[in-house]
Design a protein that fits this description.
Elements lengths: L4 H25 L1 H26 L4 H56 L3 H49 L1 H11 L2 H4 L2 H37 L4 H11 L5 H18 L3 H30 L3 H15 L1 H19 L5 H7 L5
Helix pairs in contact: 2-3, 2-4, 2-7, 3-4, 3-9, 7-8, 7-10, 7-12, 8-9, 9-10, 10-11, 11-12, 12-13
């Protein structure tokens, strides 16, 4: 039956829209499975060259996989140790910070009394009500933190399990792909997989460059404010952004506390917050898309879309995972003539 071109176009758009909505729903509701699964795949692809090199040297596959994952776990433990160390240093400085807070609060109460005529008793009542409301807010935050910690712990346990399975049974997965792929694409599979491994390597290289640039900008900002140990704090804060949200908050507390205790005014801590906020804005909207997008040969537009889509579907984990997903999709579209339009949107240097 003949269908007019307009109707065919509308039917195609409807079909693609349904596919996107259906796929997005599966990714969203299945995130508990997919996040550790794809993080495990990411770790496996990154460690594959190391594992393969060990096997070529005569090491058994099980031992090679175990040593490769041990390297990753040691790096992760070092990162957690850095976070704990900064938290302990902050707690050591907390008594001095608390005394400064009391002085600032007392000065603010006196200013309100003198300039606004609100007595100290009324202000004390306000503070009491605020403390009660803050207690409820803190309780809700703690409950959410406990739930998040449980989910994160489960994912952290499953990621190395999935990575080990991907590395150990990699030939099985490749054979499975050969079976399900159409005959015309089977000859290209090895080249695509090699490109994917190279893409993940470039992704990690790009991330290292991002952390170095962010650390340098942090250090310059802190030095401009005259904060002691500016380079140390700037680089540590950049590295700790590997842990989404929590890393930047905890690592920023130390230079903020040092600025407050050494400068004797609230403007320097606010300046530190301003520096970190500005650099984080540049990192999210300029540095990360430009540097990582260049390493992956993915357009800035596609990188930003991947970051936003990943954040909507999987939160911070999606922001990390969806970038290499787009890079892999770009590699796939390089080899499929029917997807040249999508390849044009994804490519950094379209032809």
């Amino acid at each position: 039956m003949y269908m007019p071109a307009t109707n065919r176009t509308i039917a195609s758009i409807t079909a693609y829209t349904q596919l996107v909505l259906f796929g997005g729903s599966i990714l969203y509701f299945g995130r508990t499975l997919f996040i550790p699964l794809f993080f495990g795949l990411l770790v496996a692809m990154i460690m594959y060259p190391v594992c393969k090199w060990m096997e070529q040297k005569g090491w058994g596959r099980s031992l090679s996989v175990a040593l490769s994952l041990t390297i990753v776990m040691l790096l992760f433990i070092m990162l957690i140790g850095l976070l704990v160390w900064q938290a302990r240093v902050f707690l050591h400085d907390w008594p001095q910070l608390a005394r400064k807070l009391e002085l600032v609060l007392a000065g603010l109460q006196d200013w309100i009394w003198i300039h606004m005529g609100v007595s100290l008793e009324i202000q004390a009542g306000w503070l009491s009500n605020m403390a009660k409301n803050a207690g409820n807010i803190v309780s809700a935050i703690l409950q959410g933190t406990v739930n998040t910690t449980i989910n994160t712990s489960f994912m952290l346990f499953m990621i190395p399990v999935f990575a080990a399975l991907f590395l150990y049974h990699r030939r099985v997965f490749v054979r499975c792909l050969r079976i399900v792929l159409p005959e015309v694409y089977k000859s290209r599979l090895d080249g695509i997989l090699e490109q994917v491994i190279h893409t993940y390597f470039n992704y990690i290289k790009g991330m290292i460059a991002v952390y170095f640039i962010v650390g340098t900008l942090n250090s310059i900002g802190l030095m401009a404010l005259g904060i002691r140990h500016a380079v140390l704090f700037g680089m540590l804060t950049a590295i700790m952004t590997i842990i989404p949200y929590i890393g930047i908050i905890v690592s920023a507390l130390l230079p903020i506390s040092v600025a407050w205790t050494t400068k004797g005014t609230v403007w320097y801590p606010l300046g530190v917050i301003g520096v970190f906020s500005f650099v984080q804005y540049l990192e999210a909207n300029v540095i990360f898309p430009k540097v990582v997008g260049a390493q992956l040969n993915v357009s800035t537009w596609a990188t930003l879309v991947a970051i936003l889509a990943g954040g909507i579907l999987w939160g911070a984990a999606g922001m990390v995972l969806f970038i290499p997903f787009v890079a892999i999709l770009k590699i796939v579209t390089d080899h499929i003539e029917g997807l040249r339009g999508l390849n044009l949107l994804l490519s950094r240097t379209p032809v």
